[in-house]
Amino acid sequence: MASEEIVDPTIRNETSMRRVLLHLMLPFFLTVLAVVAIAWVGYTSYRTTQAGVSRLTHELLEAVQLNIGQEVADYIMPAVTGNQVASGMIAHAPVQVQDRVFYAYASTVLREAPQLQSFYLADEQGSFMLVTRGTQKGLLDRVRLVSKGTSRVFHHELYDEHDTKVKEWDADAKDYDPRTRPWYADTNGVNGIKWTQPFLFPDDGQFVMTSSVRFKGGDGHTLVFAANISLNQLSAYLEKIKIGNSGSAMIVDSKGRIMAGRNLTQQARAAGWNPDKMVINPKDEPVFSLGYDHYRVRGFGPHNVTTNGQHYITMASALPRYSEGWVLLIAVPAQDFASFGRQSSRQSLQFAGIIVVFSIFVGGLFIRQVRRTERGTRQLATQQAQITLESAAVRQVAMAPQLFDPSVEPLVLTTQLARVTQARRASLWRFLHDGAAMVCEESYDLTQDIHTGGFEMGGPELAKFFAAINEGAPFTVGTAAADERTAAFERLVMREIGTRTLAVYPVSGPKGVLGMIALEDPTLLPHLQYFLDLTTNIAGTRFAAQQVLEQHAAQAPAGQAPDRPPPAALAPVLTDNMLMHVPELETLQGASIYSSVAVLVITFSDPVVEGEQEVTALITLINQLAMDVQAIAAEEQLFAVEVAGHRMICMAGCTAAPDPGALSRVADAALRMRETFMAALAAADLEPVFTMGIDYGTAFGGAVGQSPKVFNLWGQTVSLAELMAEGASDPGVIQVTERVYAALRDRYLFRSRGAFFAPHLGLGRAYTLAARR
User: Fold this and answer.
1) CA–CA separation, 160 vs 138, rounded Å?
2) How far apart are alpha carbons 27 and 361 in whole angstroms?
3) Angle subtended by helix axes 529-554 and 340-399, to nearest 10
4) For 313, which of 72, 569, 588, 747 is 20 to 30 Å away at the CA?
5) What's the pLDDT score for residue 609?
6) CATH topology for 578-772?
7) Which of 742, 751, 646 is nearest to 690 (CA)?
8) pTM tops 0.70, yes or no
9) Where in the chain is the domain with CATH 3.30.70.1230?
10) How far apart are CA 227 and CA 119, in angstroms?
């Protein structure tokens, strides 16, 4: 018998037992547990019902109280905040337009806030203006107290919702003086909002309070602004609110007078339209009368009262500060919250909750199994997709032309490395100067989809990092800033884009480690190792070939032809602000467009001098620097050098035919000028006070002025070069644009500077020119 046909009966029995326990015993146990739990809840629910109902009643009343309090605050607040806003607007408005500001504000607010009835504005001289609602809906009545002859009249102007005057008339004012009215007189000596006592209008049944504020106008006159707010709508809200089955609410002030509540108009009529007599009547409102008495004795809070053999719960609470000491009274029958139906519903809900919990638990077992199956399926699909991605990456690398040619940039290597490992950035670094420095041959940012390179780093602070690479073993650091081996690399390279994790794979050659592959924030999986080994071997072949080329270049005989064709010689001429330009300048006519202009802008800080001796020394130094610039410009065959205040503008490539060597000559000139300036300033015991910027592209220029003419250059290239100079991080730095870096990266060393913003162009990237390779 074959071994795969042998069956162990012991294993089979154990499997059967587990299946029986899982499918029979566990559901039975859960069912018994559910029955016991339901019985226990039924037994304990009776004991906890009374306490629960009482607690629920108090919580419900507190919630209703908070809701009503908020509604009252929202109802009254427009009158208070409106006074503050309007007084501020009128106080700061010119005297000539104070009335228009008042009318505009009052008309707008009356159309938006239905609880507000009218607005007043008066001063200490007896002037008076009023905006109130008209008798017809949508109409506003603007009233002004004016003198006509020996009498005073109210001049009315009626406006519709489109602010169009539809009618005007005069009414006798008799002896009306706003200064004698309570809303004006009560504000004397009061700093803030002052409320009047409520008053009734028998004609329309409106129950109104007035809030007023005193302030100084722009002309120094004392003004009083007042707003009338109706309490009828607040009473309508209290009548509609439902508390339990038959509960209700009422608002009284500190003296027991009714401010809002049920049947407000009937109570006002019974009191003879006298607000002071509108108090709680024990015959009409016995429950509220008892609740108010409990409040006066015991203060705010819930209280139990009994009247006519029926139990009630009353609650007294303070309303917001806008309400001048108002008290909210709530009364509700206790039986509204203690019926058997409510208790039965509560128990049913508990039973249903228990059953649902156990059902969820049982269903959770099945869900867990399904999720485990789905998780395995997803992992399998993810692995399959990763294998497909890696296979495609290998094909892309294999199909790349001239993959092992060091003169061709290895774009495909970094691109596929970043995509396969999902790294934020993948880069190839090669050792220089016998391992004392490293240069970035190629770097690819997956998020921004850009390739960069040409950065050089070295120095004592990177010694530990270089030593870790030279050990030849790959290593990964979760937080590069916290590891002493990678802290310097994180500060110089990774911090620019905010990456944390670093994976380093040394690249080895015939004579040891030649460089490394750096992956920032990668997703490293075990099965990716073969792809990483493949790319490190390819990079090692490229680096070895690059070393051979550099050795051949170092052994080339002296006098070998330079790497750029020498341009035609240009004779320097000194004219006005041009340190150097072409002899044909006087014959140039109009303006020309140059397609490949290289512009170098040097910006100097303004010097601080004291005394004639320092001025003489500074002029001598400046003259020396100018002569040095002339000499370097002539040797590098620049087109022109212009002086403009504390700036020098050097340019090359201002020719009809494109000049391919213009940018290289400007870059060499910038490096030489930087060294010359640094040496001259150090000899004069001065700090570096200059920055440099370079851009390359299209510009237009021409000779301007009369003889001697001056050549000038304009365009985006000049602006960006100046922006690079002004935005350089440190003195003595040469900052360049991305197109300069793209054109010179194979012959010069750069450092990434980061992103910058140019007006009308948006975001771009800047780089620092370090040296020639």
Assistant:
1) 6
2) 11
3) 40
4) 72
5) 59
6) Alpha-Beta Plaits (3.30.70)
7) 646
8) no
9) 578-772
10) 5
Alpha-helical segments (H) within 400-509: 411-421, 463-470, 487-492
In this structure, of 13-22, 332-341, 430-439, the range with the lowest mean pLDDT score is: 13-22
- Among 101-105, 283-287, 500-504, 572-576, which range has the highest average pLDDT? 500-504
CATH architecture entry for 78-231: 2-Layer Sandwich (3.30)
| Per-residue model confidence (pLDDT) at position 360 | 64
Q: Where are the alpha helices (DSSP H) in 603-694?
A: 612-635, 662-683
Amino acid identity of residue 93, one-letter, is: A
Indicate the class that CATH gives domain 400-554.
alpha beta
Distances (CA, A) of 375 to 212, 234, 365, 379, 630: 70, 60, 15, 6, 73
pLDDT of residue 363: 58
Residue 2 CA to residue 755 CA, distance in Å, equals 71
State CA 421 to chain mean position distance.
Answer: 31
How far is it, in rounded angstroms, from Cα 517 to Cα 494? 14
Strand 734-737 to 690-704 pairing: parallel
Phi and psi (nearest 5°) for 560?
-65, 155
Q: Are 412 and 451 in contact (CB under 8 A)?
A: no
CATH 3.30.450.40 intervals, the chain: 400-554
Q: List the one residue out of 286, 223, 205 whose CA is nearest residue 250.
A: 286
CA atoms within 13 A on the CB side of 422: 6
Phi, psi of 209 (to 5 degrees): -125, 155
Most confident of 56-65, 189-198, 218-227, 280-289: 218-227
The contacts of residue 142 (CB under 8 Å, 6+ apart) are: 103, 107, 129, 130, 131, 156, 157, 158, 159
β partners of residue 122: 128, 224
Q: Give CA torsion, residues 539, 545, 548, 550, to 10 deg.
A: -70
Angle between helices 411-421 and 340-399 (to 10 degrees): 160
* DSSP-assigned states of every residue in 212-251: EEEEE-TTS-EEEEEEEEESHHHHHHHHH--BTTTBEEEE
Q: Which amino acid is at 750?
A: F
The helix/strand/coil state of 371 is helix
Quick one: three-class SS letters along 60-107?
HHHHHHHHHHHHHHHHHHHHHHHHHHHHHHHHHCCHHHHHHHHHHHHH
Could you give the CA distance from residue 540 to residue 413 in angstroms, rounded to a whole number?
A: 12
